């Protein structure tokens, strides 16, 4: 295998740094891939909490559909996702042969038999003191998502003990599925960017992290107390590489690294992740029956962005596929699908790029379906997890 890898480096003329990163990922995948089980976890349902990285229709149901060209690459039209297609949570559901999660807030066409999605785009862990219109952040913070789950769980239990229409029952999970389900979390990035957009200093945002994670810990404990046992928790990504941050935040030349990302912002993300990892360790001590997997999404996304030249199909790592104008094809006033009026006629200017499969960033904020699939392929076997177990074994508690 090593000879083949060396030949690959020579053929592609990879720099030493990129080659070492490639080799580390390859070796980690090989080691973790050897961990197998004849009896992988059989999750009957998934309950997801998060922000736009895993929102399958919550914000759209509450405030209006994310219009075209969102969804064009897979759903052939808007599907409640801020992406051209599927999200990581969609690939997680697919891996268990479960249907895509219906948004809890979506009243039409939803089926909650095998789980529910409480995530909404723009969500934070800590509640925001401003409206969506004022701040751009969702009112459905993690504590609200918890209230929704709590009510959902209670009502399902009540309905299961009563005589109700069988058609209605077929749209609900079984009572026992709440303890057998996988609970997924991808949230926290917006807490950091919200502080920066409110003109807080990096130090001030950093000082808020313990309180943010204290509230996160409370929600995990509450779900555990209701019977939840398997938790799959993503850390936050390198938001210092996202066009909407690069475009909107004042940065100096010295703060930009050789890849075009803002170093201090990514350092803030790494600090958050360090404290999140410590929080997960504490939860393991306090919740003895829980199987909690911490997933290093940051490392995977950062590798994808900074080494995209070595992933043959990806190009323009810091440029949005769908947008209008500027260095990063991002404009806060004219987003993906945005139109302008010329002589009284609306003209679509926020168009998608010709081939989203070659793009990492979709709209300046979110990743493309192709990038989401690439990230999922790296994490599914546990290569970037603590403990290093595959997604299919996330119910296994490590001693």
TrEMBL record:
UniProt cross-references to CDD domains, sorted A to Z:
SGNH_plant_lipase_like
GO terms (molecular function) for this protein are: hydrolase activity, acting on ester bonds
The record, for Gene3D superfamilies, names: SGNH hydrolase
Entry annotated with the keyword Plastid: no
**InterPro entries membership:** GDSL, SGNH_hydro_sf, SGNH_plant_lipase-like
Keywords of this entry: Glycoprotein, Hydrolase, Signal
As given in the record, the signal peptide range reads: 1-34
Hey, which family's this protein in?
Belongs to the 'GDSL' lipolytic enzyme family.
Name of the protein this chain belongs to = Alpha-L-fucosidase
Native species: Lactuca sativa
